[in-house]
Amino acid sequence: MFNAFRHTASTRGIQSFAPIAATGFALSYYYTQDFQVVHAKEETSKSGVDLKKVREAILDVIDADAEKRSDGSSLAGTFIRLAWHSSGTYNAKDNTGGSNGARQRFDPEASFGNNAGLHVARKALEPIKAKFPNLSYADLYTYSGVVAVEEAGGPTIPFRTGRQDFDSGETSSKTDVLPNADMGSRVHTVQHLRDIFYRMGFTDQEIVALSGAHTMGRGYTDRSGYWGPWTNAETTFNNEYFRLLVLVEERWSPKLTHKGKPWTGPDQYEDATGQIMMLPSDLALLADPEFKKWVEIYAKDSDRFYTDFSKAFAKLLELGVPFPATKPWYQFW
Length: 333
Hints:
It is a single chain. This protein is mostly helical. 38% of the residues lie in helices and 8% in strands. It is built from 10 helices and 10 strands. α8 crosses α9.
């Protein structure tokens, strides 16, 4: 069960501390002199919600669901995907999209192909929303991903409440603007990744760091159409995704069969065992020199991956959110 993976936030590399305060933050953060997150203390959010109790409620939901499963999978990876996809609609040019509004509850976002299966995560969080009515859906959806990362052994993710809920999806993009797993060729898939992430204001380094979220979770044939986990430890957050990309680089082969029958799903790749997989967009990270450079760095240096993922994921969750006019925490780097 997931409770076996509830880890305490890492304090690697502690030097001297300096607190950074910002109005509306739900957490108090402490940084080293080069501003690395080393500790976070949960407090009551601006809306009066005790985030420590929300965290425990999220973990209870994950644990209860895990008891019903027999394949070693977990809701944790799906919560990360929910937080990611709630935020990944952002467009920096006109400041539209993003996690504010929790618009994934409504069409058109609820029906985006890239959001297939996320109704499972949204439904699982409904009892928590009922228990904490003052916490917005938008904060709950994003916070569930933060909790999933941290409690699976991942880095501390700076997080603050204050997102609003909208009454409809009227202001959503009418078309699916989330990243696709395959654009027909590695060249086109690489360009697609840049188009999507540059639109949100991310760099090549951040693209690779955020791709590391695939270290948790799996594909489901009745959701995305893909099958299988990316690693053999899908409920643990680590840098194994990158290590496998590098170590098995020459041995990822197209998936041709599934449970003794011809594979009829979308193109994906598998290792020699057939038990773990990679998407075309994963292998595309090896096809581009700049992307591959960061894959190799993260494969060798888990601390660097944790640091960069924490910054990029927290930035993603805040895109387009009208927080009080204070300097965003990630601009201190």
